[in-house]
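User: Please write out a complete single-protein record containing the residue sequence and its fold in token form, without commentary.

AI:
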Amino acid sequence: MNILIVGVGAIGSALLAFLTKSGNRVQGLLREGRPELKYIEVEGIWGNFKVDVSTTSHLREVNTPDLVILSVKSFDTEEALRRIKPVVSERTFILIAQNGYGNYEKAVEIYGEERVILSRIIFGAKRESRNKVRITVSADDVIVGNPSPKVNSEKVKEVVEILKKSGIPTRYERDVYKYLWDKIIYNSALNPLGALLEVNYGYLAQNSGTRSIIDNIVKEIFCVLDAKGIETFWNKAEDYLEHFYNRLVPPTAEHYPSMLEDIKKGKTEIDSLNGAIISLGDDFGLETPVNQTVVGLIKAKEQLYSEVSKS
């Protein structure tokens, strides 16, 4: 199987390294003008190794892939999906390996639901340098599935096996969309506050002030999900919060959000997290004041860092 990884950031680097190490034919597509990566060093909870990799920023050097793994930031999703169109065939599957709401939907809009599959990635990866990535934490398996029945489940399970054999804990779940929303809620509750206060997830869950904000973020999200008719594994916000504090936060308590690094670069994925909740709420006339406040603060801090970097 020819695999193209679009977006070689922290998660993309990890996927590229593990899939290459296990003998797959993998290319990494970089931003235009970026110099090639010749190797990647991996450290962390899944072992330490160094592997030579194949990357390019030139689309003309890309082999027609059987599988595209999209791991760009959410604000680059549409541009990336349209960029790869010349090398994507009718037999190519697109695997969404991103945070937030709207990435799967945009891929379906461009390529059709019969060609798009979805993952929920909940391991942490940090770029130590351009050629080094550290796997910091893993709260659960990578979950891969097909929200649409138009996708052949057996083909999706082939992708799952490839990831498993590469050393990335992975399983197939038909309800992958519910798992994705589980992570969207988790990220919306923790990432912005962690980026604003520059603290880890454990601190946010233990501090009474931030814990109250988290509770209200989640309650607003569930009101929006109920109005939209989006199903999750949880009947109400209180059930999710019990699971969140007791099961999700403890194994990731020492983790800092990737949004903390992004905000220092002047651009985050806030629009596909809390911002998406606001937009969905607006469709039904629902007010989401806590999420709106969080988004406003993140955007203010983005602007602050952008101004500092230009000065």
The mean pLDDT is 95. The domain at 2-174 is CATH 3.40.50.720 (Rossmann fold). The chain is about 45% helix and 20% strand. The longest strand covers residues 123-129.
